[in-house]
Amino acid sequence: MLAVRAQNLTYQYPDGTTALNGVQLEIREGEKVAVIGPNGSGKSTLLTLFNGVRKGEGTLQIFGHKVNKKNIRMIKKMVGLVFQNPDDQLFCPTIFEDVSFGPLNLGFDEAEIREKVKAALDDVGLNGYETRSSFHLSFGERKLASIATVLAMDPDLIAMDEPTSNLDLAHRRRIIQWIQQNPNTIVLTSHDLDMILETCQRIILLNRGRIVADDTADTILRDQSLLEANDLELPVRFQI
Ligand SMILES: Nc1ncnc2c1ncn2[C@@H]1O[C@H](COP(=O)(O)OP(=O)(O)OP(=O)(O)O)[C@@H](O)[C@H]1O
Ligand SMILES: [Mg+2]
Q1: Residue 26 lies in a domain
Q2: Region 199-219 average pLDDT
Q3: pLDDT in tens, 90-142
Q4: What CATH number corresponds to the domain at position 51?
Q5: Which of ligand 1's atoms lies nearest the C-alpha of 41?
Q6: Which residues lie closer than 8 Å to 59 by C-beta, 6 or more apart?
Q7: N or C: which end of the chain has fewer CB within 10 A?
């Protein structure tokens, strides 16, 4: 079963910027894949197409269903997207309301919602934050809360845009462990190549909206000339 199948996927922003150009990819159910590339290469744009926030040209199928207007409710249920900027994700007066928003929409009852919110906040290390307002949290805390909003829905495909950005080492470690033990399909973007080595078997390297490499994480992250040609560096653990 393919979790993602993109054929000739192209996306142009309204101002004419081409962010993705003829992307061809297949991601199998249960795979953990990192999308890497320099700033502005199209990583975030790609993830937003997965749950229908944006609609590209070409074909995109999620678990065999085309991403289109007709299927959008089903797609949003199947794909949870952690936005790069947590402020795009958090909009309620309290963290409890933000994290319960997804399960509430999925039709769970009150007791189940409480349980899901508690589990999601525990997973990211934010227990006790239920009554806090996202407006009064640090960036790292907001990032963790935005991850919790997605975990609470337990989607089949989890798309995480820079999940460890701005996190302290303990919270980064917690997110790494969560990704490692989660059985669902996970596609993440990151500039944290050492985190990717610990979590993803496969890497898709984007540059200027095109896939320039698609291989095992180990192969790509040891290829110094490929990384440098794409404004990236060897992960710390491979540097001598
Ligand atoms: N709202 C927008 N309108 C016009 N162009 C945009 C918009 N958002 C992004 N872009 C452009 O689309 C391209 C891809 O951007 P995207 O945010 O997907 O890159 P990215 O790989 O996620 O970068 P980063 O590593 O900085 O997060 C860039 O050239 C960017 O300038
Ligand atoms: Mg981005």
Answers
A1: yes
A2: 98
A3: 999 999 999 999 999 999 999 999 999 999 999 999 999 999 999 999 999 99
A4: 3.40.50.300
A5: 21
A6: 5, 6, 7, 8, 9, 66
A7: C
The number of domains in the chain is: 1
- In angstroms, the CA 173 to CA 178 distance is 9
Q: Is 36 in the pocket of ligand 1 (CB under 6 A)?
A: no
Does the C-beta of 40 come closer than 6 Å to ligand 1? yes
- 50 burial level (CB within 10 Å; 0-12, 13-18, 19+): buried
Q: Is 176 in the pocket of ligand 1 (CB under 6 A)?
A: no
Q: How far does residue 214's CA lie from ligand 2's centre (Å)?
A: 19
Task: Please name the residue that has the structure tokens 């192209």.
Answer: 10
Domain with 219 in it: 2-85+152-238
The number of the ligand nearest the C-alpha atom of 45 reads: 1
pTM: 0.96
Pocket test for ligand 1, best of 11, 44, 82 (most atoms within 8 A of CB): 44
DSSP state for residue 152 in the 8-state scheme = T
| Ion ligand 2 residues within 5 Å by Cβ | 43-44, 84
